[in-house]
């Protein structure tokens, strides 16, 4: 990588950070770290009307939670600040004016009504998507069509205007995309983009180009939805005489049922759409990061499990896929289960304790640290230690319907035989191995399989038809509790 790599994640604070935004941030971060580069956070808040209170805090919190350290941003500025576009407002106007002076942009004085009339007029004459462009600009009210003195007068009197980019009528704009290869656009398909709004605020397009240049951004890595805006940006770089950064447009995230993963689709398919949902649902951040890295990229081998540090070493733009990536929620859960299993009980205990308190339980630390390793193979999320493991603290109040179906006519008889056998055991003998031997004795005496004893026994002690390894579970519950629960089940299920 020649020169120093500088990338930016540039979200707009118009709502909570979407999962697609987090993936864009991740790819920028991985690319920066893998190339000893700098990861910049820039807040694109020029659209004041859509600004959402608390959205910027949500962006900072989400990145921190996912383990992505920001090298330069609003909270730790470097020397190309400020890092919020609203605080850079004064610098954009001079660049828009420069383009007007060069003849690459112009003042437009059209009112919203006049713009609507133009669109209506063109629709009637058979143009399905009318725009303000090389053809229509000549019949509008702007500094290209009005006499010079009238333009001067309008500006002096403070009449409202916008500055528009003067897009050439017949030109092919080509650039190389790091993901897609060469991309070309015909300029006749582009409109004369507004660069400076009537309130003096820049649009995304002007602010983006100026900031990427001033912040010395080497690579622009962003979602595919920005691909169609890129030719306008390339034109501006050309007009300013600046070297454009390398461009890379990431594939869309697709819904399992097809099409783009929209908010509505995500809701119907039970996929959390915002990073905040994953934080609140207590997902393991490493699992989400590992999953998102593979959502549109792969290292080219069969490996699937990688830490953030490893991903930084492995990541490259040429392995990013062009086609959309399907959000497979089951795969995310698979990652979550993996990372939960990797964590020692000491690390999980404080989180489990907090969740237990939310469920009105106050587990003993030593006891809980014995339960955690036992349940690890069965849990998908950290709260399962408490919700699925509640029977470690309380006798089951009811039995799951599915589990009750496994209670057969001979279940009571078999469990009574088992109780007789374990009643004889002393404290020291009440351990998983011996408890399993006693199950085998019942099986041999009654000439049945393991299932007819194990299933009702599990139902009796836990109220469920599934859960952690049974005999170590019974050992943890202890003799008195186990016998009491078996007798209750026999009474209630007959």
From TrEMBL:
* Entry's EC annotation: 6.1.1.17
Positions that bind ATP: 263
* EC class: ligase
**A GO BP annotation:** glutamyl-tRNA aminoacylation
The reaction(s) annotated as catalysed by this protein in its Swiss-Prot or TrEMBL entry are: tRNA(Glu) + L-glutamate + ATP = L-glutamyl-tRNA(Glu) + AMP + diphosphate
Q: List the CDD domains.
A: GluRS_core
Q: Which UniProt keywords apply?
A: Aminoacyl-tRNA synthetase, ATP-binding, Cytoplasm, Ligase, Nucleotide-binding, Protein biosynthesis
Highest taxon of source: Bacteria
Q: Which residues form the Glutamyl/glutaminyl-tRNA synthetase class Ib catalytic domain?
A: 5-334
Q: Which GO terms describe its molecular function?
A: ATP binding; glutamate-tRNA ligase activity; tRNA binding; zinc ion binding
Q: Name one Pfam family in it.
A: tRNA-synt_1c
Give residue numbers for sequence motif 'HIGH' region: 11-21
Q: Where in the cell is it found?
A: Cytoplasm
Q: Kindly give the InterPro entries that the UniProt entry links to this protein.
A: aa-tRNA-synth_I_cd-bd, aa-tRNA-synth_I_codon-bd_sub2, aa-tRNA-synth_I_CS, aa_tRNA-synth_I_cd-bd_sf, Glu-tRNA-ligase_bac/mito, Glu/Gln-tRNA-synth, Glu/Gln-tRNA-synth_Ib_cat-dom, GluQ/Sye
Q: What is its main location?
A: cytoplasm
Domain spans labelled Aminoacyl-tRNA synthetase class I anticodon-binding: 356-490
Q: Which intervals of this chain are the motif 'KMSKS' region?
A: 260-264
Q: Which GO terms describe its cellular component?
A: cytoplasm
Function (record text): Catalyzes the attachment of glutamate to tRNA(Glu) in a two-step reaction: glutamate is first activated by ATP to form Glu-AMP and then transferred to the acceptor end of tRNA(Glu).
Name the family the entry cites: Belongs to the class-I aminoacyl-tRNA synthetase family. Glutamate--tRNA ligase type 1 subfamily.
Q: How does it assemble?
A: Monomer.
| Name under which the protein is recorded | Glutamate--tRNA ligase
Gene name in the database record: gltX
């Amino acid at each position: 990588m020649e020169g120093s790599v500088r990338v930016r994640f540039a979200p707009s604070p118009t709502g909570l950070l979407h999962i697609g935004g987090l993936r864009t941030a991740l790819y920028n971060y991985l690319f920066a770290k893998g190339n000893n580069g700098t990861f910049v956070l820039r807040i694109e808040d020029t659209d004041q009307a859509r600004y959402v209170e608390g959205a910027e805090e949500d962006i900072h919190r989400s990145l921190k939670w996912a383990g992505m350290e920001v090298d330069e941003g609003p909270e730790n500025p470097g020397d190309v600040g400020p890092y919020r576009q609203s605080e850079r407002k004064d610098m954009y106007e001079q660049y828009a004016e420069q383009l007007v002076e060069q003849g690459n942009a112009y003042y437009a004085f059209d009112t919203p009504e006049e713009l609507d009339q133009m669109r209506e007029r063109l629709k009637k004459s058979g143009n399905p998507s009318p725009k303000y462009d090389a053809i229509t600009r000549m019949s509008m009210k702007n500094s290209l069509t009005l006499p010079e003195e009238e333009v001067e007068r309008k500006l002096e009197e403070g009449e409202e205007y916008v500055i528009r980019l003067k897009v050439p009528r017949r030109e092919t704009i080509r650039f190389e995309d790091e993901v897609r290869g060469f991309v070309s656009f015909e300029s006749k398909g582009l409109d004369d983009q507004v660069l400076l709004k009537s309130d003096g605020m820049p649009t995304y397009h002007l602010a983006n180009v100026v900031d990427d240049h001033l912040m010395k951004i080497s690579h622009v890595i962003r979602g595919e939805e920005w691909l169609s805006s890129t030719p306008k940006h390339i034109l501006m770089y050309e007009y300013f005489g600046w070297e454009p950064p390398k461009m890379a447009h990431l594939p869309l995230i697709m819904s399992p049922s097809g099409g783009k993963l929209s908010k509505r689709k995500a809701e119907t398919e039970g996929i959390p759409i915002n990073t905040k949902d994953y934080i609140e649902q207590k997902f393991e951040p490493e699992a989400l990061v590992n999953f998102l890295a593979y959502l549109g990229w792969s290292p080219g081998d069969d490996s699937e499990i990688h830490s953030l540090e490893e991903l930084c070493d492995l990541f490259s733009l040429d392995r990013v896929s062009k086609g959309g990536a399907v959000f497979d929620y089951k795969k995310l859960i698979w990652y979550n289960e993996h990372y939960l299993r990797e964590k020692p009980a000491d690390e999980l205990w404080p989180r489990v304790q907090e969740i237990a308190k939310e469920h009105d339980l106050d587990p003993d630390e030593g006891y809980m640290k014995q339960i955690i390793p036992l349940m690890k193979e069965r849990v998908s999320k950290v709260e399962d230690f408490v919700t699925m493991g509640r029977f470690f603290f309380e006798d089951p109040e009811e039995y799951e319907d599915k589990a009750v179906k496994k209670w057969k006519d001979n279940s009571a008889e078999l469990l009574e035989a088992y109780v007789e056998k374990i009643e004889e055991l002393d404290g020291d003998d009440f351990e998983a191995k011996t408890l399993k031997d006693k199950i085998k004795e019942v099986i041999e005496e009654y000439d049945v399989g393991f299932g007819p004893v194990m299933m009702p026994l599990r139902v009796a002690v836990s109220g469920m038809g599934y859960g952690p390894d049974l005999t170590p579970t019974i050992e943890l519950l202890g003799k008195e509790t186990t016998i009491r629960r078996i007798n209750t089940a026999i009474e209630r299920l007959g």
